[in-house]
Amino acid sequence: MSSTTAMTALEAELAALIVGALQLEVTPEEIDPEAPLFGEGLGLDSIDALEMALAISRKYGFQLRSDDERNGRIFASLRSLAAHVEKNRVG
Amino acid sequence: MADIPFLNRAPGEILARRGARPVTAGEYLADVAALAARLPGAPYALNLCEDRYLALVAFGAALARGVVTLLSADRSPHRQRELLARYPGTIALADGVETVIPAVTAGAWGRGGGENFDLPEERVAAIGFTSGSTGEPAAHAKPWGALVAAARSAAARFGLDDPEDGATVIGTVPAQHMYGFETTVMLPLRAPVAVHSGPHFYPVEVAEALAAAPGRRVLVTTPLQLRALVAGGVSGASAVISATAPLSPALAAEAEARLGAPVLEIYGATEMGSIASRRTIKGEGWTLYDGVALRAEGGEEAAALVPGLPGPVPLSDLVEIGADGRFRLIGRRGDMVKRGGKRASLAGLNRVLTEIEGVQDGVFIAPEDLEANPAARLAALVVAPGRTPAEIVAALRERVEAVFLPRPVVLVERLPRNAVGKITRRSLEALRDTLADGRDG
């Protein structure tokens, strides 16, 4: 794909979680870690956001919030989501 | 024609809660007056506010200036331009979202003052939109009298008309979706409730709002959100109201048990507003709001006669009307599909699909569980030599709402059209089953 950088272990784990939770038609490896998750890129919608929030809270033990500005950044890409998970994960 | 006051609240009553801070009806009127004074003359105002209190202030300010509010939960630049083209002179009232049309920033700038005012009941206060059968949005004008009558009926139906109660409404639905508009904007204007400004999208935000609100707490949500809230362990509501799609009895029972509160449903549509309710675990029959009547139109089709609306409004669902006046939903009229509180016509979607450059033929397929299962989506079978599924989705994205984007897009050599070029119901069902097997396996 277009990305020049490989996925980290956490990014790969999150990619698999997203593809599984949302039943996406791509393989986790096909997700560009720097492409937007919503709109362009993967084309996720707000229903997907809720599903993702549930899956993330189950696996990583913290809750997503819709604090606009910050959320825009969280879902900017798989990479930014992974950074947010890394910072907030419990245990 | 009679005049009806804009606000039906005493100045000292709490009308909203912004976080922990209560806002009285008097303070609200001051905020409305302050924003109204900043509005340029305009025929229409597109209310884009995400903060529910600011959406309420923006609606009031528009009314005070005789400006018609356009309600669109879709805030995208594309939608803003589309509405401006259709309603020349429109200004946006926004609180942070990116605007691409002339805009005024909405805020709570009241410093005292602000008077209540009267509005003629036939005045169009707001216009809501649905996806029409052709795929182009259809407009539905809402006279002030109809909005007031619906709010009054809802307050009576849900026991929210007791000033001693001081209920707080916590909504997960956008204020610009007709259901969210009725329950979280019109209701606090007409009934003794306080609306929480939000945001309430993720379960933790709803949990915190429920924990912080004093008195009765009414959660206004959707089946998809409710499922997430139950899974997220949210509790503490006094009553739950759900709408936009029928709630499964199993989810309703689980939500009642987990939340310890009755789970009620509203039946309605953008073009007619809310017209009936039920408590899901008590059976599938819907009880009409006071003043609303259903008129059978032959077969299983019906139209609603709604106070304040000029003519009967056809229901998009097929219904069976019982001897007791209650009704059951038995299917959807025509080829409409519904997801995430939005409706679209399959024929309209197919037309958009086949207009894409390089697409020779194509058809959208709706799974049977589209409304009940959050993981269910539309799929599309497409004949487009040389094009990829990703390109087709990218082209669709410009014209189709995200919730209706197909997943998967399957490229095929041809579609099973019969001698007259139609895809029969039977072959569509076979295709749907094949796709469903792929999804489950």
From TrEMBL, chain A:
<dbReference type="Pfam" id="PF00550">
    <property type="entry name" value="PP-binding"/>
</dbReference>
<feature type="domain" description="Carrier">
    <location>
        <begin position="5"/>
        <end position="89"/>
    </location>
</feature>
<dbReference type="InterPro" id="IPR036736">
    <property type="entry name" value="ACP-like_sf"/>
</dbReference>
<protein>
    <submittedName>
        <fullName>Acyl carrier protein</fullName>
    </submittedName>
</protein>
<dbReference type="InterPro" id="IPR009081">
    <property type="entry name" value="PP-bd_ACP"/>
</dbReference>
Automatic annotation (TrEMBL), chain B:
<dbReference type="GO" id="GO:0016874">
    <property type="term" value="F:ligase activity"/>
</dbReference>
<dbReference type="InterPro" id="IPR050237">
    <property type="entry name" value="ATP-dep_AMP-bd_enzyme"/>
</dbReference>
<feature type="domain" description="AMP-dependent synthetase/ligase">
    <location>
        <begin position="118"/>
        <end position="277"/>
    </location>
</feature>
<dbReference type="InterPro" id="IPR042099">
    <property type="entry name" value="ANL_N_sf"/>
</dbReference>
<dbReference type="InterPro" id="IPR045851">
    <property type="entry name" value="AMP-bd_C_sf"/>
</dbReference>
<protein>
    <submittedName>
        <fullName>Acyl-coenzyme A synthetase/AMP-(Fatty) acid ligase</fullName>
    </submittedName>
</protein>
<dbReference type="InterPro" id="IPR000873">
    <property type="entry name" value="AMP-dep_synth/lig_dom"/>
</dbReference>
<dbReference type="Pfam" id="PF00501">
    <property type="entry name" value="AMP-binding"/>
</dbReference>
<keyword id="KW-0436">Ligase</keyword>
